[in-house]
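User: I'm new to structure prediction. If I give you an amino acid sequence, what do you actually give back? Let's try with this one:
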Amino acid sequence: MNTNRKNVWTTVSRAMLNTVLGAGLLLSGFAGTGNAEYSASSVSPAVEPAVSAAASAVISIAQARQLPPGVEFTVRGEVTAVYPKSNAYIHDGTAGLRIYGYDAARLRLGSEIEITGRIKNYNSELELVFPFTATELPGDQFPTPAPLEVALDQVGEANAGQFIKVRNVWITEDYSSGDGGVKVTDGNSSVVIFALDQPNLKTYLQNLPKDPSQKFDIVGASSVFRSTKQIFPRGEADIVPVQPSGGTQTPAPAADKLTFDNRPPAAARLSGSSGSVPASSTVKLYANAAKGAELGSGTADGIGAFAVTFDNSAQKLQTVYVSATAAGKAESGLTAVSAQGSGGDTFDVTVTHISDGDTFNFSPSLTVDGKSVHIVRMLNIDAPETAQAPFGDQATQVIQSLMPPGTAVKLELDQVKVDVYGRLLAHVYRKSDNLDINKEMLKRGAAINYYIYPNMKYFADYGTAAKQASLEGKGIWNPSSPLTKLPYEYRAAGCMERYVGDAQTKKYYIPKRYKEIPFENRVFFGYDKQESKTAGYTPADPADPNHNPATDCTTGSLKTIAEVRSQWNPDTTFQVVGKVTVVHEPDHAFIQDATGGIHLYGKIPAGLQVGQEVKVDGNVQEFYGDLEFKNARVEKLNQDGIPTPVPLELKLDQVAESNEGRLIAVRNVWITGKYNGGNGGIRITDDTGTEVVVISPTKGGTFLDELQKLPQGKQNKFDIVGGSSVWSSLREIYPRSLADIVPVGGTGGQGLVKGTVKAEGRSIQSAIELTAKHQTSGKETKITASADGSFTIPNLVAGAYTVTANLKHYIPVKAAVIVQDGKVTDLGNLATPGNGGSKEGLMRGGNVYPDAEINIYDAVIVGASLNKSTPDALAAADINGDGVVDQADLDLVEKNFLAQIAN
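Assistant: Good question. You get back a string of structure tokens that encode the predicted 3D arrangement of the chain. For your 903 residues, that looks like this:
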């Protein structure tokens, strides 16, 4: 801070202090549709159909591979791979075999199964094909096979169906047939690395460097299709870069911390935020994945941030590739980064997954308005909800026919670019012929025009397209079987809440009068009338009334939850009263009454808490088998008439439709792996062999991190409480907090938590107090950090804890953690931004006036005490503890001014 700025702060501080004291004041002591995204690979329950009575005796897979096509047989083995759409592999120690058909994707990786079916020779590929029956077996009869290491010229029929490993191969070119992939060689032979059922993997493979100096070790299922030798990796983890001799390779730049700003293109800028690359590493920027053209280079600073500027006006690149090279290490692999803007906010991406008639996933991810996005909610159209059968499925089929996964599309944005669910709002154009997909959905009657101000591009054009489809009776407008509720009517569940305008007359109406406006002219505004006025609309009613939910909304008939579960239909509004048992903000909650429980999805009131009683009023839908209130109105009640539900104790095979929505407890379960669908979580099982997914309340963050760090294996058992759900055939549990994940006591020993924490401006950290609070019992264990900031909190009984660091004049930092019996839990740096720390990973200093904020009051106190060393001044304002109130203390206040405590 320069002298003039210092004087300004001092003057303001003194003036504010005088004003405050003169006034006689005493300075004293914180989810298309927001749906969780799932893929077929997420669905992996125990496989239960009975084996056919016609099955022959069990034979080995090696014997089965010798049978002629059409002969039914039964084999047993371990599932070695499951691919998202319709493929899986099993192995029994004698050979491997591909399983093909819809139910193949429902097998559980690592499970042991007995399966009955018939062999088919499909262009030289032997497959056990649908229909087949499979039963999951108890025990561990078949050891997990290690990949068979072979040279490329050995990939063939002799090892078809087995998992193999090839070493030191490099990529020569892209492979475009079928699902696509790349061709690799070892200098002698060539094999295709095939992205079976995985469009994201195809993109990843084809962005890897095609350079003989960059070699890979690759694992996957061996296949021969016609005369093409293929390897099917299960995912990116099966593609491992070979570390160059003489050192290790630099980690690839972190994609979520990179931004490619192409505005203006003459000064395009690739930047990385703190931690995007190793500190002080050399950063290089390339035009393509083959490193054929270097665009520029730069050096990262001490916290791993950097910027590289180049002229993109001639090439107009939409994707660039960046590497990092740390001192003493080899150059990293490349990370692809798509343009944040090209002057008109357009992006070139590839469709990877269709969710419904107006929502899809794409790759690579983009950074827009500072948010990482990979899902599009198509702008200005509204397709039927999945629950609006059959129209929801029909809309999904239409969009899949227009742009199936793998289709290259261009995204065009408008004024509001990202919605509250973190989805990119975009017009979508098929790259091959520039077809406007949004408009085509309207023309085919697969959607209706849906405009929310201020995103108003192509309003008249889209309205005309929708009107023409209605006149022709297409799709949702079919006069013999029309859609009874428009999608936004269905979601409103009897209570339209947005003010609505007529684009022709420029008049606005209260929400319930929307039907008075022809649908092709409707414009929706915010939840109060001001936005309508700002847009230049005037009230249709001279009295200009306000929306009144009490009189303007349809009220459902009051039912018990059990009655709703038995009587529901998507067109009827219901009302229930229940007690909140689980909250996963912003779009999931569970409630329960004396008769049962139910899932709330969509709009969840801010501040909704477990234990509150609520009245829920709205429509119910069955979403892939999960019954839920969708976007219902939730009113908090000031009463306590429903007993607090006691968790229903179940085995995992009892988690089912019969107890869906209820608070349940499962005991002595163990973790089998991570779960990456939706918000993410873990997969668990118990002695029934059934798999259940435990869902994190947040996508990313401490809860998910701690959940996925828990040890796997039968030797580490847990008791878990949460809301019960069955989505498609995926059994789920939604815990309320980390306190619901309790390690099962073993030897009776204790665990400990270690980590580091440092404070801004402090050279000695020993004054920092660490508190570990047991989330169930409330017991606290306190210690102080060492001088270097390291800490160890010993003698903690197993359970969930909140660890907090406190230091006078600093904003506290805290994190949740699970302590296990006899284990060391490493928190790492406690003062990360997600825990309330600064971007440098330090406790933020300047909270002199204890109001949990660093604001003008702190500036006042420090400014008034500058250059003093009296005990009174020190007690009030010596932030960094160096014995004097000086410029360093004022700098800490300025840096963190208006910073709030992170909860």
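You can read the tokens as a compact description of the fold. Here is one thing that stands out. The longest strand covers residues 163-175.
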